[in-house]
Amino acid sequence: MDSRGRLNRALSHQEPDRVPLDLGGIASGITRVAHHHLMELFGYQGEDILIDRIQQLVKPDPRILDFFQIDTRYAYIPVPFHIWTKDQTGSIWTDDWGIERRFTGLYFDMVGHPLREVETLDDLKRFSWPDSHDPHLFVGLFEQVTTIRESGKACIVNIIGSCFEFAWYLRGFENFFMDLVLRPDLACGIMDIMVDFQLGQFQELLSRVGDGIDVVLCGDDLATQNGPFISPDLYRRYIKPRQKKLYDFIKTKTRARLFYHSCGAITPFLPDLIDIGVDILNPVQVKARGVDLPKLKKEWGKKIVFWGGIDTQRVLPFGTPSEVRDEVRRRVDELAPGGGYVLGAVHNIQADVPPANIVAMWEAFKEFGQY
After folding, report:
1. Which of 199, 257, 259, 307 is the most buried (most CB within 10 A)?
2. Considering its fold, how many domains does the chain have in total?
3. 283 prior amide bond cis, ω within 30
């Protein structure tokens, strides 16, 4: 069974020959520092290829992907050019949406929001936004997807669709959440800008490679470690219909499965996500409150695929290789029966994860990941 067949069998809630393994995307990647340490451990030389400036993610070296028997391969769009400025605290860059970010040691954190001062829907008309139909965003994408398909690997494009989370990037977290209660027309107007952009982006993407990809990435964070940061009522009133509009459109253009990324304790939203067409839940943040994996598997395991689950908050960065081994065994025991599980880290592998623990995760996967 090749990697593509293996993944798609698992996504169909059937058992393949072994659990599929993922690494390399915008929500399941590896940071520059962690990748550098892993390359040193293997004695490999190579250049870092940045795939996400904000999170400092790099394209995993093909030798590492092959050694770890990773089933997924990602097609990457170029990291766009941004405007750089300086202030007394260091470098700030402004992306093509006008969001300002400053490097804080490991990541680029938001420090400026272009819609922070807007008051009315008319104010939104003063801004010009990126062109989602810009052909330069998709140069070489078809060739990448074709190469991946010919290799027998499962293919994913490293573009993530968001209408809620990206909206509060533009407005600022506090302002946007106050708007949802006090000025919902303004909050919805901002989300509609994002929905229109995403519809255009996925129109361009899927018209080029919709028949060649296996998974489409979408996501909006809905929760913190301890619970939702938006009430289910507000979510269902304002966010869910806009997500559904985007997801319905995507599903008219491709047979690829819909992957949804949200950190945190999002269990209360699972019925809603399934209702709007989500096929895959990532990253399965096992340390978040209420994430009871045996219960989730029993209740929802026939309707949604669990993707991730190997703890990056404590076990991978601070555990021993033996603890990593136990973590992998637990995840396979809890989530793999009957298919519907793709193994990977909870979100991206961070700078504080020792390379020996990444190797321990792979060794445990070899030991326990067979059906």
Report:
1. 307
2. 1
3. yes
